User: Which sequence fits this backbone?
């Protein structure tokens, strides 16, 4: 087990009608002028925004709003938000939404307290040393940003998609009401399933030793996610399935399942180029890239992939097959699960093109350099090969 | 899944030589006069105390010490600590030890800021509204108090052993260096194994529905604890086994494995009477009580006990046996595991006596009333029957 630091201080308020606690939570953090940041119109249309602003009004907490955070949230809106936060003297950021609204809110929170360009943080030119406190009302279990220390933003100049981590990015609270997700489109929910499983995979693919406890917990969460996702598909009104996905999405990315390990994140890096280039959903890009990545790197530790196949993907080990063969069956079963969820598993289904690979590699190099990855060091040649594997139907 | 609130803000610094971070952590919390509280002489003898005070001296942080916290920590030392903390104007409690030193430190932390008798908190006459911040250097993985919101104290007047919970009882940080446990006696380590498994059992025995995710994680942690404990027994120098136990002990009791569930705690209540009456180790009392409790209540939900048997205790379900029969085999396997660890599994081995049961029931009633428990409501008659089951060899 590697030495580690685990600090996940976000207060999670979880369950039916949890959003009714928002006023009390904001008061707990002494919020007086709340910047409500959200994404598309659904937060307004569903009546959630009105419910929240009414609670704030009742508590005598001032507030103003900025919507428009898109999937793969853009720098333009962050700049606009920073300007607005300063003009209105915001002292608290309340994100209502999924990963996009939350990540955008985190970047605004840090940028507001920084004199330079917030993108400096993302280019490694400056470190976050202060930020507005952030709270979250989650509408989609997926990114795990509601309790994570990371936020991913796409810089519109050059369409560079980058993520950074900071202790200041840990939300103070996260309100999670699984019933709110009933109005989310099923495609967004299944993208979320792929994303949260990915957050576990990136931590599971490690060369660190002595990680059996965290591995076992990760396998338990992956299994539960897959079961709950299938239940949700067959019965979208199943509360327990949605509650399971909501909680799984949070713990998949709050750091718990990465303790004591060197993490990887290669597939996220490869995918970020797809979602930046084609503006496709992050989860859809991931379901294309994971099987390709896993196939390409499994010879680093076939036993680890064999375990995943047997313990999570339901492959039977009859004692006559080698680890590599079982691992391949596991990857095929993962692909089958993605298909069951209606997710793409190759470039064509995603709307990506083999002939664009040189372009993807260019921005990949600009974002990550010539080499990256921990489980296996990935060169740009390796990256090309993985993209090519992902082109196969 | 029940609605829940999960807030576990303790900063965990984990790994080899983690104790070297203590000065930096104390400065982070602006500590100027640190009250170092510990248990027996081993903290001093091992050189740990000297190492810590040297670090504090180097950082220019003032400090003073009070040792003597015993297993089943007593009210007398808490009163003494409160007096001392006030005299010396302590602004931070640093516990070095296992659950006893930590729980004693928590009670001192709360009592110092309260004008009345700290025991008021334990009798429900007052609520904690302020406390000195508490930090921990853990020496024994067991109680999980390093990241929990609870502390158990034995009031010497009447030998009442009671636990309470409070947000103020969450330590600010917990330093966990698995190498420190090398010097702990093996009996204490195996008591710790029983205790941490118990913290999971108390949350596993629930009638709440939709708990599959937390159940699966709990089973994963239980399995990992049992594997690591066996490794530690056969090779006491195995770092990874000790690291696994240390981390498992923390997450077994930081609330993670109880989310979305009504918890139980009956067996802890029954055991507290044993450790208060006979002053035996809490873990030893628990290994006597769990099999008896489980056998007595399993008909509430045989399926749940069957799952535990099959998923954790290695019982094979060949499809021809009913849940109850498998559940019984599971309980027998748990007993066998306790014996393997050298732990007692009945009153005689513990040094308890059947004829004392009426006395145990008297203090049980004083502490818990005529009925308690969630998984199954336990009357005093039930409690008597469970104690009687625990007398069987």
Assistant:
């Amino acid at each position: 087990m590697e030495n580690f630091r685990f600090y996940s201080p976000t207060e999670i308020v979880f369950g039916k009608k949890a959003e009714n606690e928002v006023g009390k939570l904001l008061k707990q953090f002494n919020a007086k002028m709340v910047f409500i940041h959200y994404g598309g119109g659904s937060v307004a249309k569903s009546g959630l925004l009105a419910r929240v602003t009414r609670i704030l009004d009742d508590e005598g907490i001032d507030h103003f709003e900025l919507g428009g955070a898109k999937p793969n949230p853009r720098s333009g809106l962050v700049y606009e938000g920073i300007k607005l936060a300063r003009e209105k003297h915001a002292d608290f950021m309340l994100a209502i939404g999924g990963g996009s609204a939350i990540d955008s809110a985190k970047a605004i929170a840090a940028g507001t307290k920084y004199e330079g360009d917030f993108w400096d943080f993302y280019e490694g030119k400056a470190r976050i040393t202060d930020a507005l406190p952030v709270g979250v009302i989650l509408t989609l279990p997926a990114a795990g940003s509601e309790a994570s220390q990371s936020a991913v933003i796409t810089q519109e100049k050059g369409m560079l998609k980058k993520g950074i981590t900071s202790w200041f990015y840990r939300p103070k609270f996260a309100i999670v009401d699984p019933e709110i997700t009933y109005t989310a489109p099923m495609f967004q929910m299944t993208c979320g399933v792929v994303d949260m499983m990915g957050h576990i995979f990136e931590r599971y693919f490690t060369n660190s030793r002595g990680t059996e406890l965290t591995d076992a917990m990760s396998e338990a969460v992956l299994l539960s996610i897959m079961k709950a996702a299938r239940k949700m598909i067959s019965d979208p009104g199943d509360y327990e399935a949605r509650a399971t996905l909501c909680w799984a999405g949070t713990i998949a990315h709050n750091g718990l399942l990465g303790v004591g390990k060197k993490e990887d994140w290669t597939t996220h890096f490869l995918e970020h180029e797809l979602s930046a280039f084609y503006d496709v959903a992050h989860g859809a890009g991931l379901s294309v890239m994971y099987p390709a990545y896993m196939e390409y790197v499994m010879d680093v530790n076939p036993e680890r992939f064999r375990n995943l196949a047997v313990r999570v993907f339901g492959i039977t080990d009859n004692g006559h097959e080698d680890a590599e063969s079982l691992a391949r069956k596991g990857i095929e079963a993962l692909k089958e699960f993605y298909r069951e969820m209606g997710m793409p598993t190759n470039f064509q289904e995603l709307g990506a093109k083999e002939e664009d690979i040189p372009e993807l590699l260019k921005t990949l190099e600009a974002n990550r350099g010539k080499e990256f990855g921990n489980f296996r060091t990935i060169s740009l040649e390796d990256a090309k090969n993985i993209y090519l594997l992902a082109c196969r139907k």
Observations:
- Chain B has a mean pLDDT of 96.
- Chain B touches chain A at residues 1-9, 11-16, 18, 178, 209-210, 212-213, 216-217, 219-221, 223-224, 227-228, 239-240, 243-244, 247-248, 251, 256, 259-260 (CB under 8 Å).
- The CA atoms of residues 16 and 177 of chain B lie 5 Å apart.
- The domain at 185-391 of chain B is CATH 1.20.1090.10 (Dehydroquinate synthase-like, alpha domain).
